[in-house]
Amino acid sequence: MTDQTQQTATVTQPRPRTRSSGGILGLTKKDFGLLVLVAILTIFAPVILNPFPAGSAMAQFNAGYPDLMQRFVIFGIFAIGFNILFGLTGYLSFGHAAFLGVGSYAGIWSMKLLTLNVIPAILVSVIVAGLFSLIVGFISLRRSGIYFSILTLAFAMMSYALAYSVLTPITGGETGLQLRASDPRIFGGELMPGMTPRATLFGMQMQDSTDLRFGAWTFTLNTGYYIAGIVLLVAFYLSIRIFRSPFGMMLRAVKSNQNRLNYTGLSPKPYTLAAFVISGMYAGLAGGLLVAMDTQVGAERMFWTASGEVVLMTILGGAGTLIGPILGAGFIKYFENIVSTINKSTLESWFAFMPDGLQDAFVAVIYPFVGKGWHLTLGLLFMLVVIFLPGGLVQGGSKLATVFRRDRKGGGVEDDAAAQRQAREE
Amino acid sequence: MDAIILQILNGLDKGSAYALIALGLTLIFGTLGVVNFAHGALFMLGAFCAVTFSSLLSFGFVPEDAGSTSVGGFSFGALQRETPYVVHWFGENAGNAIIDWAVPLSILFAIPVMIAIGVIMERGLIKHFYKRPHADQILVTFGLAIVLQEVIKYFYGANPIPTPAPDAFVGSFDFGAMLGFDPGSIVYPYWRLVYFFFAAIIIAAVFAFLQFTTFGMVVRAGMADRETVTLLGIDIDKRFTIMFGLAAAVAGLAGVMYTPINSPNYHMGMDFLVLSFVVVVVGGMGSLPGAVLAGFLLGIIEAFASMTEVLDVLPGINQIVIYLVAIIVLLTRPRGLMGRKGVMEE
Amino acid sequence: MTKTNFTRRGALKTGAATGAGLALPTIFTGAAWSEAHTGFTNAPQGSTVTLGFNVPQSGPYADEGADELRAFQLAVEHLNGDGDGGMLQTFSSQALDGTGIMGKRVEFVTGDTQTKSDAARASARSMIEKDGAIMVSGGSSSGVAVAVQALCQEAGVIFMAGLTHSNDTTGKDKKANGFRHFFNSYMSGAALAPILAAQYGTDRKAYHLTADYNWGYTTEEAIRSSTEAMGWETVNTVLTPLTQTDFSSYIAPVLQSDADVLVLNHYGGNMVNSLTNAVQFGLRQREVGGKQFEIVVPLYSELMARGAGENIAGILGSQNWDWKLENQLGDRYSGTNAFVQSFGQKYGFPPSQAAHTCYVQTLLYADAVTRAGSFNPCAVVEALEGFEFDGLGNGPTLYRADDHQCFKDVVVVRGKENPENEFDLVEIVEVTPVDQVTYPPDHPQFAGGSLGECNTGA
Amino acid sequence: MGILEVRDVGKRFGGLQALSDVNLSIAENSVHAIIGPNGAGKSTLLNCLVGKLIPDTGSVSFEGQSVLGRKPHEINQMGISRVFQTPEIFGDLTVMENMMIPCLARRDGSFSLHGYRSLMADREIVDRAEHMLEDMNMSNKREMHAASMSRGDKRRLEIGMCLAQEPRLLLLDEPTAGMARADTNNTIDLLKEIKAKRNITIAIIEHDMHVVFSLAERITVLAQGKPLVEDTPENIKGHPKVREAYLGESSGH
Fold it and tell me: Which pLDDT tens digit goes with each residue over C11-23?
């Protein structure tokens, strides 16, 4: 049934305009604006994320290198998909990393056995993850609330434990799976012994990059990143369409009042299962992209902490909002990859301009929060965000926006969900 | 036969730890409706109460006549041998005995500390999250758990810290001889037996407290129907604060006594967190007996799944048995073993 | 402390851009990390060279990672001519002169592997793509080592493995751009077997508890085959989950069996807990058929010994290196004291074997670059392959060309009965000489991989 | 033969016989009230009709088809809609969205992804929902969050949502419980209006005699799980048995 959805998505032309709908690509003006915003951010990310000249002390904070940009995009997709389940239906899955992991394994096997082209790999990832989530969802959705969460968690932890140990012949266990020159690939011909197999898309290699240099600034435009970026835009577009579709409304209805839905002649289960499978396929897509960008997979990406991470991303950004999950994913990945690399010598070089005593004091105060202490900073930020911005980062953004534009009445599209959450608390 | 008895003992012992943690978690779930991801961290803090107390007892000074210490021909700054003040004050025998009994003694230290931590946590943070969605509770308590364990890591490092039991409890008790088996066939470490009895006492105390005191009766009523109790003019909030303190103390004591079994480290809370949630949910939300029952049940099942005889038939079953049992229980009994309707179901 | 500027790449690009005119963007196309005009990834230009030290800073191995990082910092200091020079004086190759590497000052960046292969690769990629690292080193587990080694192969930089003990790293997962100084499971087995025979006799029944993942499998296989070869019988092997914390249900059946030796193929937290539990169950006091029951831990580490406390007393195991080697066994192991001296002076306590291997790997890399006269990875590979050296604390050592594994003596140690302090927990029992632990490159335990060809990333 | 036929229904909860030998026939296009003191089994009976509970004995058929063993949403699809004691609406959704869901459900009957069309692009559904809102006099509250409305408005919305499905039988479970007198009267007027305008059968469970006697054409009195008597409102008023079992206790009405 989900396949059918996607077909319709591509085939259906925007319908004749009606009062409140219309706009481009079947989106309302606001939604289209949001899509354009995400598109601009994606296209110019290599520039936006590298605000500091490469040689400067602040260059440590630059995030515009291929690996991290790819991760922003991929985990953004993962979180968008998770949000379709959690944000709309309220079902909190604690096992979504399993679908990401299964997708990754499927993707790498496709590259090992089929071809190095990433498109079949990604398709296989999505399909396999979709099938797996269909099974898990079918069973887990027999329960709701915390019972549902624990069921999904149990499935994910079983997947992890088996992948790490008993299934080592399929998963590579502890050392994971990588591509090898000796893989028995059907298409794409034999690689010369010693050649490194690389993921490609019709001749383009994922790690190909073009460096743009403006004075002191360097911006890396990476092929893999832009391919992932296009996928993100498609995924984001689909998620907007789902949010605004009658199906999306049904999902929100499931979250709001299952009893009424039942007595309106609708069984919630097919809706929740469809949402579960769609979000599982998003996770598979993210997993497939992960191996397409970086051709290896390890079982840790199915551990419960990885499932927890996507939950945190979604809540942190703003559950039920469109753009929130992407922000949350970026936020967490930024801290994981940037703050963890600041070491004592980096700090010392930042505060080098200060007199010695003061420098030492500053370093001593900041040091516990960076480098190996990055978890501490992340934990503190989780608490601060949830205490002061109950609607997540999106709410923070709209708060800022209202400060700057006092005249504008009401918030944008994105405030709705955030405001709604807040309203429910009161 | 003796192998089975041994595994039952092992299961009861594992189950004691699960049950204690799940008990505290259920108190918080059931009374306050809060998904507390920091509960594992409370267990960990309890264990580090023992570590801290031991090191406080061993805290000492470098005797003036010690001279410079050289090890293997090198002299390292960090390797000065200290005489503990306790030994200095109470003499060689009494002082060393006190140090030896550090873990049991740290119960006295841990109870007030853990209650204080629990009360501060509830008043300072959790209180404001009662009416927030569960998702927000997860985020804030998970953040708190990370902060707590990183603080411990900052002071104690990531490596496990050995915290031995008193010498009196080193060694094993020979059940075999007692039950008429061959001597030596069923031996069980003293400290693990201590842990089991300790857990039984704590569990019994918590139940007695809730069952037989008026305070407990009000809390139980509050668990069932918070609004009515509030309407009766009872300040349920204050009682819930105390319950949080109590739950923290239960988790902390479970941690204190666990240290001789496995050396504590800063992430032990996270190791137990997922498992304790599984135990609570399998037991059934809002049910204290359910949590305890599920703790022991899963402990015993885990013990049996690790037997060679079982593993030969089902390789890898020891990896997944807990989760498998959880799935089966939740599919056959919708609200776990003894869950109440409507608790955390939306 | 040295003040370092980590963004070498940026600095040189500033220069490049000035030459090209400020307004016009300069465009280079190629692999993300490739400098098109130099022929290999991250070719150092200007006066500095950047190394990437990728160690666990969070998770259970964070302390080991911290010790590795200390060693890396010390190595960088020594390479740059600061401090007392450490092993530079004792190293048989005297190519390094304390002026950095080929005259370029050594700078470094650090990252957190979290002991997860994904995170480790992300961190390594950031070093290569963002910071322009030309070599990546460190790590505390084989999963991470294999993952990062494969990455470095793809990217065209050199990987100098940190602590990784699985046969796979230089067996089925070996790569041309990757090198391992640390010893491996096979060597542990080969080194322990004769000493076990001498200490406990050849008529023993062994019971294995094995961590249920690759490293556990290779270690169990190695120990089994070498102990069985000298007459021991293996009565049972049981796989234990990585996430297990309480091993009582695995230890108890040992009491029921007729085994008289327990082999714990565990590392890190698993080892600390399983050993603690084994001792709790009185296995140290046990006698079976008139023989004292013994426990063996194939891979020892100082930090694990510290975690297990007094439980390690009398337990045999193997190590890559120990800081007391030179003092106790003479100057075959020269370099040890020089390293311990400068490490101890800087940090106040002796280094672990993880620190040692990381320090040595950094020096070996720097030396190979200097001897090759180029940072080009293929030149470095050529310089390291078949390289014979001495004076780095392990005695005469060979970097074998066939699999990029170092061959050297293996130290067999035993937990001290009454340790004086937390850094001196083991005593050296014996050293198994290198010929006894050497194996042919096509040994079945290492089958299934091929080095491939060195990759420059261009 | 009525539109709804209940034959010999019995239901037991542990030691409590909640319903026994209940026989009830609701005539098409009538307004039928079921009254009885607390604990008489009214709610249990209602739950048996909509599939929330399955009776131990007896049969329930709607338009000649058995409803037993069907799930609530399936029974709803047969043409039975239910209004709850506390209004059950989609609180997080807007009033308009609330109204659209039954409109969609009516068209599709069962699960459908409803294509990918934007919600507002579906003219047919939008028109139907807006028409229904007008009928309910709620067009001005179109964009409000349903949860933020007054109880009376919520009730009105809920009834509207039920009607949007064009059911043949509307079940009301104490529709005026907890309402102020004015709201109660509004609800009575609304129901009268509905009855006048539409071809619909209404079954109402009610405590409030004022409501019952203003609306009902026939009344069944339940007591201790059994139907005591069934008759017209006039006859019920003076019925001695009812007085004894029910009115005596309900002092006032």
Answer: 333 333 333 333 3
CATH 3.20.20.20 given to domain D1-79+167-253? no
Domain total in chain A = 1
Interface of B with C in 22-61 (CB under 8 A): none
A194/A385: higher pLDDT: A385
Q: DSSP states of C330-357 as a string?
A: -GGGTTHHHHHHHHHHHHSSPPPHHHHH
Give the C-alpha separation, A360 to A410, whole Å.
48
Q: How many CB pairs under 8 A join B and C?
A: 155
Instruction: Report A:311-370 residues touching B (Cβ under 8 A).
Output: 311-312, 315-316, 319, 368
How far apart are alpha carbons A371 and A367 in whole angstroms? 7
- In the CATH scheme, what is the code of domain C186-319+410-437? 3.40.50.2300
| Min Cα–Cα distance to chain A from C419, Å | 30
- CB contact under 8 Å between B143 and A382, yes or no, is yes
Tell me, yes or no, whether A57 lies in a domain.
yes
Pick the range with the lowest mean pLDDT from A203-212, B138-147, C18-27, D27-36: C18-27
Q: Cβ A244–D118 below 8 Å, yes or no?
A: yes
Nearest-angstrom CA–CA distance, D119 and D105:
14
For the segment B33-48, what is each residue's pLDDT rounded down to a tens digit?
Answer: 788 899 999 999 999 9
pLDDT at C134 over 60: yes
Instruction: Report the alpha-carbon distance of residue C172 to residue A344 in Å, rounded.
Output: 38
- Residue A30 domain-assigned (yes or no): yes
How many Å is the maximal CA-CA distance in chain D? Answer: 62
Query: Domain coordinates of chain C in residue numbers?
Result: 8-183+333-403, 186-319+410-437
Q: How far is A13 from chain D (nearest CA, A)?
A: 9
Quote the CA–CA distance of A42 and A294 in Å, as a whole number.
19
| Residue in B139, B146, B335 nearest the CB of A315 | B139
Domain hosting residue A266, numbered range: 23-304
Instruction: Give the pLDDT mean for A28-53.
Output: 91
Query: What's the length of chain D?
Result: 253
**For range C150-163, the mean pLDDT:** 93
**What is the Cα–Cα distance from B320 to B324, expressed in whole angstroms?**
6
Does residue A2 lie in a domain region? Answer: no
For residue A161, what is the domain's CATH number? 1.10.3470
ipTM score assigned to the predicted complex:
0.90
Q: How far apart are CA A94 and CA A304, in angstroms?
A: 7
- Chain A, chain C: beta-carbon pairs less than 8 Å apart: 213
Q: Identify the contact set of chain B against chain A, taking CB-CB distances under 8 A.
A: 35, 125, 128, 131-136, 138-140, 142-147, 149-151, 154, 270, 274, 277-278, 281-282, 285, 315-316, 319-320, 323-324, 326-327, 330-331, 334-336, 344-346
Asked, colleague to colleague, whether C8-183+333-403 and C186-319+410-437 share their fold, the answer is yes
Assigned CATH topology for domain C8-183+333-403: Rossmann fold (3.40.50)
Kindly state whether residue A397 falls inside one of the protein's structural domains. no
pLDDT at A347: 85
- What does the longest C-alpha to C-alpha distance in chain C come to? 86
Mind listing the pLDDT tens digit for each residue in A122-160?
A: 999 999 999 999 999 999 999 988 889 999 999 999 999
